[in-house]
Design goal:
Layout: E1 3-6, E2 12-16, E3 22-30, E4 33-42, H1 47-62, H2 67-87, H3 91-102, H4 108-121, H5 137-151, H6 153-172, H7 200-208, H8 216-228, H9 232-236, E5 243-244, E6 247-248
Helix pairs in contact: 3-4, 5-6
Length: 259
């Protein structure tokens, strides 16, 4: 059966269980009240570990503190901190939530662009597992620099826009208190630039040699792109119902700018 045994050290006793386990306790008084603080269980805890716990508790008591209550407070604060960390969203999680939020709000090709940037530049990066409210401007600048060095300035500019959208979303969801991307300034060359255009004679040369493609539908599609200056996807979806008195009229839902 279970029994209790007082040890030589002042206030220390053990409770021996029917399975042979030995639970060590430190009994002391504080402000007129008795406390029993568990020091450990032998043999799961070594004699040295139990002794260390006793010496720490005894020292704390000699300094006028309540070791058991202090330990409980410390353990509760540690547990609450761990729970808070578990509740915090990582950069990668917020990026995926952002994608879900944008479904149905933006055009599929825009969503595809977001998804590609997140997959290539964020998902496998160490920042993806970092709590989003722990990320600083320096971290994002370093990420942009990596992308710029590997894939060029235009790719860095595209990533900048995606990051800005993700952090704006995070602010709306109260995952962060203050948006930090306002301090993440883009560079002038982080925009895709058209350094030159086809001259008139070059346009004629392209136009007159489209037959080498060997596909009449593609030939006509390219001619329409050249004539209208519109995006290929919009040209490819052109329908006769959109032609009014010789004008090609597109609704806002059909173009990227929504205009």
């Amino acid at each position: 059966k279970r029994y209790k045994l007082n040890l030589d050290e002042k206030g220390v006793y053990v409770r021996v269980g029917t399975n042979g386990s030995v639970s060590a306790y430190f009994r002391y008084s504080f402000s007129g009240q008795n406390y029993d603080m568990k020091l450990g269980v032998y043999p799961e805890d070594s004699m040295q570990e139990i002794t260390d716990e006793y010496e720490d508790a005894s020292y704390s008591r000699r300094r006028g503190k309540n070791p058991k209550v202090d330990l409980e407070i410390a353990e509760r604060e540690k547990r609450e901190k761990l729970e808070e960390i578990a509740r915090r969203r990582t950069f990668g999680q917020v990026a995926q939530e952002f994608l879900e939020e944008k479904k149905g709000e933006v055009k599929e090709r825009t969503l595809k662009g977001y998804r590609g940037q997140i997959k290539r530049c964020i998902s496998d990066h160490p920042l993806a597992s970092t709590a989003i409210d722990d990320i600083r401007v320096r971290d994002l600048k370093d990420l942009k620099k990596e992308v710029r060095n590997e894939r060029g300035p235009a790719a860095a500019g595209n990533l900048h826009r995606v990051i800005s959208n993700i952090f704006s979303f995070a602010g709306e969801e109260d995952y962060i208190e203050v948006g930090i991307t306002t301090a993440l300034k883009g560079k002038p060359d982080e925009k895709p630039e058209r350094e030159r255009v086809l001259e008139d004679d070059e346009l004629r040369l392209v136009w007159n040699n489209l037959h080498v493609i060997g596909n009449p539908d593609r030939e006509e599609a390219i001619r329409h792109v050249l004539l209208t200056g519109q995006r290929p996807i919009e040209v490819a979806q052109m329908h006769t119902s959109q032609i009014h008195d010789g004008w090609w009229v597109l609704s806002g839902a059909q173009v990227k700018t929504n205009k």
